Amino acid sequence: MNSPYKAPSSPVGENRSDTRALSPSPARVVYVVSNNLAKVSSLLPSNKNRSVLVHTLVKQYGLLDVANPQSARPIHPVPATVEELTRYHSRQYIDFVLDPYNFSKQDDAIPSSTHAEFGIQEDCPAFAGLHKYIPLVAGATLTAANSLIKGEADISICWDGGRHHAQKSKASGFCYVADCVLAILALKRDRINTLGLPPHKSRVMYLDLDLHFSDGVSQAFVSPGGPGSGEPQVLTLSIHHASPGFFPVSALSSLSDPTEESFDPFTLSLPLARGASDATFARMWKSVEAVKHAFQPDYVVVQCGVDGLAGDSYAVWNWSLGSSEGSLSWCVNRICRTWQCKTLLLGGGGYNHPNVARAWTHLTSVAVCSFSSSIATGTVLVSNRSLKSSQVLSAKEALLTKL
Ligand SMILES: [Zn+2]
Q1: Which tens digit of pLDDT belongs to each residue from 224-237?
Q2: CA distance 160 to 37
Q3: Sheet holding 267-272, edge to edge
Q4: Beta bridge pairs of residue 200
Q5: How far is CA 140 from CA 209, 225, 383, in A?
Q6: Residues 6+ away with beta carbon under 8 Å from 328
Q7: What is the Cα–Cα distance from 136 to 140, expressed in whole angstroms?
Q8: Lowest-confidence region among 9-13, 93-97, 157-161, 294-298
Q9: Reported confidence tier of residue 119, pLDDT bands at 50, 70, 90
Q10: Is 165 an active-site residue?
Q11: Rounded distance, CA 213 to CA 146, Å?
């Protein structure tokens, strides 16, 4: 089919000649971390103490040691201001969640309907420290994005970010703040200076590798006037599991079909069956790169949720961190080494905390050095005995070809 994406303002590959062009290999990598970020992020009820485990392992492998030539440069997060948070979130939501009085355990005065209105219930319970968590995690992701905008890095890492279910006025799915959306909004405000051409608005591709559909991000950027309207600067592509009743339920999570009238080429979904493996990703990765090649982003934001890895408590996919084609690390290496885009790597889901620490440490090493010489933490995943070999199914190839 004809590409739905408008021809770029510069020939393929030449947009890297801008004044903040990617540096030669190895990439300049920054890593957002501070003791306070690890401490506050570790309060997240769905992932208690995960952040501390992740940052400790990354540091112990020497990946934040500036004396080591193959390391990331640690930078401290700057907490987001109310003005920054309300570039997406409603003022009412931010006023509510930033008021610690609303989450005091002694407080019985706040009617539960107010908490429910803002989604502070069930899988997003109130917790002491929420008023610190939201500006710090949003600020961490924005700090990472700003380092790309300022030309200080080629790859920015913020494992505390990637909260892809949070909505404009509501917490959802363990996510209280829409840091992915805020980062994309910041990146799309940038203008790219290409030698010999007028500055052009930046293009941002959001790629979500989490087991769950990126409903919060996809909904935020779906074409406001319907399919084919406008010239969106943002393309979202979510690769996830979808089946009846599987969270989150959304009309946008089904397979994008160009033959349908409702098809939006800038809001793409690629659902995979149970048991998706390295082989599944190896087969469909050509489609992912075809989209990237057609859209020609200046920035790519990758949500690296690891709840699809074998060993996670969800036990739905059987993805790995090994060296084989199609593994998570192979995919991230492809992005970091061959896509020629400024790249923001974010965290996301992942509920086997030792495995999450291994995975994100391994991906950090992939970002700072070549895939072949990356450290091998990722290959030592805890196995999930509940995942039977009979569940290791391939994705529906017939569906994939529609992309
Ligand atoms: Zn998830």
Answers
A1: 666 666 568 999 99
A2: 8
A3: 73-75, 29-32, 155-158, 342-346, 299-303, 204-208, 234-241, 267-272
A4: 192
A5: 20, 32, 32
A6: 209, 281, 304, 306, 308, 309, 319, 320, 321, 359, 363, 378
A7: 6
A8: 9-13
A9: very high
A10: yes
A11: 26
Q: What is the pTM of this model?
A: 0.88
- What pLDDT score does 318 carry? 97
CA distance 22 to 335: 13
CA of 355 to the centre of ligand 1 (A): 14
Residue 246 alpha carbon to ligand 1 centre in Å = 11
Structure tokens at 32: 């957002």
The pLDDT value recorded for residue 227 is 63
pLDDT in tens, 153-187: 999 999 999 999 999 999 999 999 999 999 999 99
The alpha carbon of 350 and the centre of ligand 1 are apart by a number of angstroms equal to 7
In the chain, where are the structural domains located? Answer: 22-400
- Give the Å distance between the CA of 136 and the centre of ligand 1: 21
Q: Which residue do the tokens 């010239």 mark?
A: 231
Of these residues, 55, 89, 115, 165, which one is catalytic?
A: 165
Q: Measuring CA to CA, how many Å separate 289 from each of 80, 144, 394?
A: 33, 24, 20
Residue-averaged pLDDT of the chain: 86
Neighbours of 391 (CB within 10 A): 14
Q: Place domain 22-400 in its CATH homologous superfamily.
A: Histone deacetylase domain (3.40.800.20)
pLDDT reading at 392 higher than 60: no
Structure tokens at 82: 């109310």
Residue 148 has pLDDT above 90, yes or no: yes
* pLDDT per position as a tens digit, 240-273: 999 999 999 999 999 998 888 888 999 999 999 9
Ligand 1 center to 221 CA (angstroms): 19
Instruction: Compute, in angstroms, the gap from residue 183 CA to the centroid of ligand 1.
Output: 19
Predicted local confidence at residue 228, as pLDDT: 61
